[in-house]
Batch of 4 targets.
Target 1
Amino acid sequence: MDQEKLYTLLAREMAGLLTEDEAVDLQQLLQQYPDASYIREVFAQNWVPAGKQYTGSQVQQLLEKHQLRMETLTEAPVIEVPAKRRIWGWYAGIAASVLVLLAVGAWWWHSSPSEKPAPLAQMVTEKRMRSQVLLPDGTRVWLNAGSKLDYPKQFAAHTPREVTLEGEAFFVVTADAERPFRVHTKTFQVRVLGTSFNIRAYPQEDSAVTSLVQGAVEVVLKNADNQVVSLKPNEKLTVPVLQVAAETHTVAAPAPMVIYKSKLSPVQDSVLTETAWVQNKLAFKHLELEKVAVMLEEWYGVEIGFKDNRKKQLYFSGVFESESLEQVLNALETTLSFTWHKDAAGKIWIQ
Amino acid sequence: MRENEQIKLLFHGICYENNIQAYNELYVSLCARLIHFSASIVSSFHLAEEIVSDVFLTLWQKRNDLLHVQNPVVYLYVSTKNLSLNTLQQQKRHQHHSLDDINTDILAIAPDAENGMVSAEVSQKIERAIRCLPARCQLIFRLIKQDRLSYREVAELLNISTKTVDAQLTIAVKKISQAIRFDLSDETAQTYLRIDS
């Protein structure tokens, strides 16, 4: 009986869904059946197909073949699809999408990396617009609203990969030990190997934040004698932005910078407030209504004002995905701590 | 489940942003698994490669209609299953095909003997034990161990309950364990305990 349970628990462990209680049971059973530890180890190993296996280069060939089919499909006169080739005949019903594919195909070939020496490229997002770019090294970058990313069209060999960010972006960096990845902002520089992290460095905000989801990064502070701070997964570093004052006459000792590390804030299963925007979600946790309002302004492109300044200090948590601005405000309003209305000019007022 | 999240992001990039790079990445990360799955149904790697290529073509063509897809991995496996069964049906008319007739030779997996932990002999024993399992059980074991699907995903794909998946996987683990001489009776176990203490 116990053995049956042991098998079940080993099976569930392999599938990655052992509960905490079951993990305790498994530990006990493993003490009872010492041999089972070996079995467990065997299941934890990497297994491979006993027969045919596809290597990395074969997969690449498959992709090329697939791309070729995609192209052939777009060029083939649809009406003359030979009926005897059943696999191809299946395409007959999809004539309508041929044009789309043609356009995509053309774009695809034009955007393939060229041999020419590559100058800088720039990606800019307007308000309410978010966008995604794949850098030439395979690194993926999500760019939040009102942001700007400068990057070379081609990264040189054996030299660090350097990009410059103004605004907010989430990076999933392709590992390359030979060419560390560096993100420059006005306030700091972030050095990484392969990893995923978020940087928020809007020029109009009074602090800049690096949030690490996975991997390891080092943040080099520009205004603190190039002090280096290392981050572990689920940590973020908030750095105040020294506003370069317009008045140049006083060089009084600047207010001491308060740089602090904190934990990332999960609001729901796998939703982090720091990176929710990447998945088109608006998330905040225990955040002052004043800052929530700023997020809503950015997200929905509206203006929000307070008629009662005390309301700015109310705290809210929430995750929204497809809700309209009105739905979000109504949801927050159900806490009965404030009311809102829209004036004739479309501006939202909270009181 | 980092991998699953990555796949969801790629799928999102395809459906919402028509991102062809994400599409290529998705193809690279899933094609081998899907081809093996398809080949177990149609008994031909050559045909399976075409089928999976077709599945991805459809994905690109219908990408803007797929915004509701909750689980891209399940979607792609189900598409592969359906197209594989349809292809068989067309080839051998008037015959009913189901996942019960799968070619299990294609599904066999075993620990990688090259990493030192498991000897070639043990690896062969395991492979033999797996080949002795019922076809459906082999498929479930493969989908979970090798393709890293969850119970729920396998249940959805094969139209069975997660309980059945659990039971089938337990059988597989039991048979494999027994094949590598894990058949300690309670009595022997007690001896071990006494030695320990």
Target 2
Amino acid sequence: MEFFRIKRDIPFMSYGRYTTAISLVTFLFAVFFLATKGLNFGVDFTGGTVIEVHYAQPADLAKVREQLAATGLPDALVQNFGSSHDVLIQVPLKQNLAGAKLSEQVMDGLHKQDTSVEMRRVEFVGPQVGKDLVENGALALLLVSLGIVGYLWLRFEWKFGLSAIIANLHDVIIILGFFAFFQWEFSLSVLAAVLAVLGYSVNESVVVFDRIRENFRTMRKAEVAEIIDNAITRTMSRTIITHGCTQMMVGAMLFLGGETLHYFAMALTIGILFSIYSSVLVASPLLMLLGVSREDFIKPEKTEAEEVLP
Amino acid sequence: MNRYPLWKYLLILAVLLAGLIYALPNFYGESPAVQVSPLRASLKADAALRERVEKALKAASLSPEVVALDGNSVKARFADTDNQLKAKDVLISRLGEDYMVALNLLSRSPRWLTNLYALPMYLGLDLRGGVHFLLQVDMKAALGKALEASTGDIRSTLRDQKIAYSGVSREGNMLLVKFRDTDARSKGEAEIKQHFTDYALSAKEAGGEFVLQATLKPEAERRIQDSAVQQNLLTLRNRVNELGVAEPVIQQQGADRVVVQLPGVQDTARAKDILGRTATLEVRMVDDEHQISPGAAAPFGTEMFKDRDGNMLLVKKQVILTGERINDAQPGFDSRNNEPAVHINLDGVGARKFKEASRENVGKRMAIILFEKGKGEIVTAPVIREEIGGGRVQISGKMSTVEAQDTSLLLRAGALAAPMEIIEERTVGPSLGADNIKRGFDSTKIGFIMVAVFMIAYYLMFGTISVLALGANLLLLVALLSMLQATLTLPGMAGIALTLGMAIDANVLINERVREELRNGVTPQAAIHAGYDRAFGTILDSNATTLIAGIALFMFGSGPIKGFAVVLCLGILTSMFSAVLISRALVNLIYGRKVRLAKVAIG
């Protein structure tokens, strides 16, 4: 079986103007929604209390709200979580209530109302912790970006490192844009997914770049655009199949992993889709723009890892 | 060209075998168990304790599957939770207060596996259920307490040395000692410099008064904060023991935070209550006039308490001092005879009261009692030899250095050095934990099957080989996680699924390369060789970038994210091994020997 039997190289570089326009528009949309709607940060970052409870019968949300108001929490957010039996209660940080005691008061109140209620999960995050997590998250993002640029610089050339990281940060912004647009909860695990996408979608660029470098050596007479076109075309089959396989795994998580993994898998899904696009149609035109040329590789760079293979 | 030397096959076989052995315990599952561990340093978990446990269970006609000695505890495994709970009650009543009896889960894997240190993966709280607390130690309060203590000490030192001063007060994080003239100040400065090495002094004149400003040196500040955290850790450890948690984690995080993880604990209210409680110390006089008759009630005005060796002592009800008056307790040596001793430092009020009490009771015994959970225990009951003034008390006599250390720890650890606040709580109920495991497992399984079916259909024989390599990858990853006993969380399980999805990339790269070479008219053998060769550089590069992301996540991630990062990093290593070496070995085994290979099944 073979899906991609492409005889002639597809002239991707000549579409450069359109593809750049498309990414620019998506990117601007993402930035727009991030700026206007903002991310719906989860309790991990904002601080507050989340309580997940389970009822033996479908839960009556109005009664739960009533009980919470009686407990002195009229501003608690009450919603179903996954099924009609499960209820998620979110309480913002409060000055007057000791955070750690709050979950007990809520559970006591709910228990009085309905003894079948079962505590599934409590998360309380104080304001200090949330701040630390935001800082650490930003630091991790910076470190990953620098690490990737540095690595690609060492293995290829600075132009490759720069165009790859721009392409991939563009993916990250788009993922964040989706989360802002749909107001999906941005939690710690989503952040982990975003960083994983950063590492993963660079793979994509690396595979194409590897081919470009190889082509500079083998296709002596070809133009730069032809070389890139050829590299993209010949790796396309692998790109689609690899991402398809990863997506099967991620899709299983998306549908079977439960609520906790749902947004994690969602971030990965968006990341995977856009990384196909960006590594091919953003990173490569950028590389052209930065003026990659055969001279970048004429230097006797014989430090190929290929010799490591036994 | 596509042949591996024998040693390479043997190496791969050895790695796979090791992987199988270390992954194996995960398939046996876990059974409910009861864990008995001694609460006192003087008691040990040994064969004798195991026998006691066995006997106690036999007497209650409970039949555990296994009773084993494991580290510093004895564990008894049962077929079901009913017997487990019964056994817990039996053991608590039979063994008494000196032992902690906790519920636990024990792997059902056979003994030979356990002897190889092959243990199942260590599940995080989100998978097994339990409580996670992050507590912040109030450092300001710790420093304030130290400053407050010094005020009294400086006062009594100056008084002892007969240096005239007009006042000692605390202002913020500074102590102000006021004198009437420069002469007294310089004398006072010399004295304070000698006795209070933690402070930096500077002289100042203000409003006709000669003031000496004392501020804590940075290193002293650090030391005070550090010992505050250490003391709080110790106190927490003592308290968690009461909760009967099998594998509690209590550790320092950063400069001023403490993590407490209590797997399996559902009653968070009780856990919070016990963690936040302040234990109290009391100093009272021992009543040596009355005899203790077993079974009889304590005479009027006295109470009976056990000491740490289990002997009963009669103690008067009147309280001389409470633990709040103790600033510090340190192990050391008696300056006269070099015997191990405990040095206690009392604050001003405490010193005065203690002086009176000791003057009136020379030759009698004094008891220091630690109250926790409303129950008192005598920490030590020394004889008073002479009147003790100045707030510096020394307890010595019939003590080993270890005992001196223990006693001073207990005196200090009875109370928290500084208040703590819960700044993060994560509780996962047992049903959610079990659901999480099922979901994580299901999505990995379904994802794996889908990928396998697709790969085999698309690449035929090469696809089958890729799937086998992917299976080996999963095996090795699980084995590695079990070996390292890294904490597996739900994001960690997601990490397993994700690494598998990403690992297939290496095989796709290789297979596509081989196809391409074949299309270019190269012979099958050469195509296989070139395919693996050329793809390797790409595989290395693309994995390296993912590894960078994984390491950054590990460095900055907390809790469950760290679990994800660990799996991601380990998964990259195992997938490099399996996708390149194992799949190549299989290909070589199948095709390498055929000299005239006309066709390979790659779809």
Target 3
Amino acid sequence: MSISQIQEEIIEEFSLFDDWMDKYEHLIEMGKSLPIIEENLKTEDKLIKGCQSKVWLHAELKEGKVVYTADSDAIITKGIIAVLIRVFSHQAPEHIVEANTQFIDEIGLKEHLSPTRANGLVSMIKQMKLYAVAFQAQIDN
Amino acid sequence: MTFNVEKIRQDFPILQRKVNGYPLVYFDNAATSQKPQAVIDCMVDYYSHYNANIHRGVHTLSQEATDAYEAARRKIQKHFQILHPEEVIFTSGTTHGINLVAHGFANFLKKGDEVLVSALEHHSNIVPWQMLCEKTGAILKVIPMNEAGELVMDAFEALLSEKTQLVFINHVSNALGTINPIAEIIDKAHAKGAAVLVDGAQSCAHEKPNLAELDVDFYVTSAHKMCGPTGVGILYGKKQWLEKLPPYQGGGEMIKEVTFEKTTYAELPHKFEAGTPNICGGIAFGAAVDYLNSIGFDEIEAYEKELLHYATQELLKIEGLKIYGTSKKKTSVVSFNIKDIHPYDIGTIVDKLGIAVRTGHHCAQPVMQFYKIPGTVRASFSFYNTKEEIDKLVEAVKKAKSMLS
């Protein structure tokens, strides 16, 4: 599936919940199924620094696709990063770089985009795209 | 006068609003307080009727603005029981005041001198002293804390010596709410010839300090913690200290005479008030002081104590909940965690229920490192909060716990 197809799928999934609590329950469940980064990769350089919770993000290039793993010490943050990994993992770097992230608004997680959520979506997306840019450069060379 | 919280709540327009569909419960008072209508009106009145630059114009508006600004200075002087009005320096806030003193002390310190700070400090209280010590070769020493979040006074006395030039301490810890024994600290520091700077940002909304009686050398605070606007605060300094300290910033207002050869500095307090100040903020700070005194600090203290006691008792009924900072002398702050749940997650869920708490390390990472935790959930109460709101917090925390476990 393409990035936009997965985004559509997630939007549809979240549209089933009319109540924020169910939405967060779903997010928390997704957090529990996050492809966890290996313990030995939880190093300083894998850490997305912020004020609130810790997020470790790792990326590898496998057969031309970027594979992400991550972890966080906060479960809601884990849920958010699980959504992002579902969208971006196993995609070609160029598609990740180009992808827009409008779907965040539509699933009602917009508040996590606020710059005050220091460990929010913004820095995670930026870090994921940075990995993709680096892998893209590697492929082009 | 009996304490009528429902009547007081009507003074705060923001308490009428809803957040995420629920009536706002504002428990982030240690970060900033809400503003009563009297303060908001004062600011609107200033800009609507007598906005002008102060201390320079001969025209009527300028004189009215100057009079109001200087009247606010005297109100603040009286409130904090400061001997002379010129010992009240308007600043942009606590951090500005601390930096002003730290900058000036660079002239007085030499290699090997010592500066003491407490383990309970906010980052803004650590960094300026580290910078000062780097610049002068002085040594920064830390007064340790115990498990209850209190300063270890024996250790403080052991650290004090003839080398100690300055002791810097917050009156109340922002992360835990501990009230530090500042009177004792000031006396002991003075006995060794050290000066003391007290940060009153976390205490000034809860009690009225008598700075003359405390005999403190410097005191700083921010208006926004005590129902005033952001961007304004005061530095109090004993006259003999302020006269010795060099100016912090150059600019208009702080000069007496300028030629290209030499500038003579203005008298106190203007020596430290370069440039156009936050005129509206200063005047509104005065209005905030009036407002708080109209309620009465004894009443505020007694009522907040009741809220603290009730919140502590009710929150502790939640299994797995631990409170950090258990000193007997505390302001109305409860800093807590629930076993195996990240404070950020709890904060997110309770926000969804309209409750504003602070989560994280509260800019006091050394305190968090002491307890080996990433942060806490901090609920801080003000005199306009109610027990019913605390009940809502307890319910919200229970809900968060069941969702997150």
Target 4
Amino acid sequence: MKMLEILKKELKSYFFSPAAYVLMGFYLLISGYFFATFVLTTHYAELSPVLGSMVTVFMFVAPILTMRLISEDMKMGTDQLLLTSPVTVFDIVIGKFLSAVFVYFITLVITFIYPLYLKIYSSPDMGPIISGYIGLFLSGIAFISIGLFASSLTENQMVAGVIGFALILVFWVISWLGDVFTGKAKAIFKSLSFFDRLNNFQNGIVNLNDIVFFLSVVIFFIFATIRVIDRKRWS
Amino acid sequence: MMVELKNVTKIYGTRKAVDNISFSVDKGEIVGFLGPNGAGKTTTMKMITGYMPPTSGTIKIAGYDIVEQPIEAKKHIGYLPETPPLYLDMTVEAYLHFVGGIKGVPAKRRREDVERIMNEVGLLEVRKRLIKNLSRGYRQRVGLAQAIIGDPEVLVLDEPTVGLDPKQIKEIRDIIKKLGGKHTIILSTHILPEVSMVCDRVIIINKGKIVAMDKTENLSIALQNVRRYFIKAEGPYDKVVKTVENIDGVINVEAEIEEDMMVKLTVESSNDRDIRKDVFFAFAKEGLPILELRPLGYSLEEVFLELTTEEESYDEDVRNIKEGA
């Protein structure tokens, strides 16, 4: 599988450079801080508020994690290697997407210490914790797909990072527009909001509806990325 | 036929970068793609390798259409772009393994393939080094190695010696020559001697069009069918020109007045006779002093200049070459 070769290569460049460690370290440090302060101040054996904050932190981390994925290839000319090799653009994009997802997944697995602590010293309700993690993962891969798309738009990494962050922010706050409108428009804006759907997960509610929504966002942006790369070659 | 282009055109916006090009390359041939900067060499190569599709026309690699069956076609191509497509933070060896992977070299064979190619191109001593720490010459070799991996029948090399020092240039050329027998090579350059040193055949391209296409040795012979001389003489323009034109064997005269009573002439004669003595006696008889008389060579360099400068004589020269073939 050619896609696996791309994935392996991207993982190597994450882990053979400081990039992955710095980002993972930053994410874990902040979320650890949230967890510790929350537990110490409230003495509640629950994780939902912490998981909520972790989504917010990943909003900042995701664009940085993904900004170089495609833009760097365009800048260094290595896209010429990839695109003239017997590999489809689909394989290239999926391989790169999965590499960032893998880094994110590993980071989440490390944070399993938090519920483990709660479990050892108390008896938390595991339902909302598990569903909260599912929401955290789904929203995270949606952020990654958006960041990946932004990375395909420009060969400047900084610009890609900023565009990625702006797009994520749009999805985050779009439900506010729902409050401005009424009727159908309100429903549409509300349904596009990451925020409301994540609340469901954190409250222990797993809707198929919400899962499909996040996966749709991922699929949409992956295909948009492929289109952008193809467009560039045809223009 | 390993590579076949038919009526290929590429338009960027409103500019025709490549204009209705057709040619084909046989198995094992080394073809030089020659032209000044901006002639459309790189664009043509990008289309051959499937990096970008042509606006119109078809390109076939080993029988596979690069647009219709890109994956099949690309299996037969190794491409070295103008700047080698290197991942600077990888070691030479890891990079070549990765390239082997995406080129579809089976995992079992990959190690020995990479080993063999590093040996062939001369990279064994830097195999563990990060590419960003390598000199230009070595980077170019890594680029070349990258193109050879997977043993593609067709190698497309875009200006493989540009920016290298003379020693490195020689080394790279030697490697290319060595690859010649096994692979079909299309190589672009704007350096003329490179073509005569490395290539079997030359395609000269200018402003997106093919202006000449022939075996390397024929191209210069074609133009050597005529001899050319430069003459500078003192005298009235009409008289000087008339005198020259009356000499036996003179085919063509181009004259211009340099200053008062000073005429510069470029004279062509048939190849089988040296007209210099006749010129001397004719001018002496008319009482016109010759200030300078020397034969003009026709190196490939001049062929090239002749073909790509925009003068009236341009079309005629192309015709000469085609007839001489």
